[in-house]
Design a protein that fits this description.
- By secondary structure, this protein is an alpha+beta fold.
- It contains five helices and three strands.
- It has a three-stranded antiparallel β-sheet with strand order 1-2-3, covered by helices on one side.
- A hairpin with a 7-residue loop joins strand 1 and strand 2.
- The model has no long low-confidence stretch (mean pLDDT about 95).
């Protein structure tokens, strides 16, 4: 039996939003968290239209399957949300959606941190 939930496995293997956006575009926001050799490294980029609606979101992760799945889940959740509605996503939302165990809570907290950094 896998130590990962079905949701983690699904988002880990079906990471549709992996990649990057053109950061030279004025409507693209980008944030990065972590350091190689110290833990997970997360990058989150969103494209926001004039109405403050997130029209695209991409991520890159150097880290464990929980971090990859959490960022994949997050980017899917961000698509079509306003920045205000995106702020309602928390580490607890991530934990519940992916059934992340308490030993990996730091991953969900990192995801929340990078989200709040990129949306301002």
């Amino acid at each position: 039996m896998s130590e990962y939930s079905q949701a983690v496995l699904r988002y880990f293997f079906q990471s549709r939003q992996a990649g990057s956006l053109d950061v030279t575009q004025p409507d693209v926001r980008s944030a990065r968290r972590g350091e190689i050799g110290v833990g997970d490294v997360l990058q989150l980029q969103i494209q926001v239209d004039d109405q403050q609606l997130i029209i695209d979101a991409k991520f890159k992760v150097y880290g464990n399957p929980y971090a990859i799945a959490a960022m994949a889940w997050l980017t899917e959740q961000l698509m079509g949300r306003t920045l205000i509605k995106a702020r309602k996503l928390t580490h607890q939302t991530v934990v519940e959606a992916l059934d992340i165990p308490p030993t990996k809570l730091h991953t969900a907290l990192q995801v929340e941190d990078i989200l709040y950094e990129v949306i301002g």
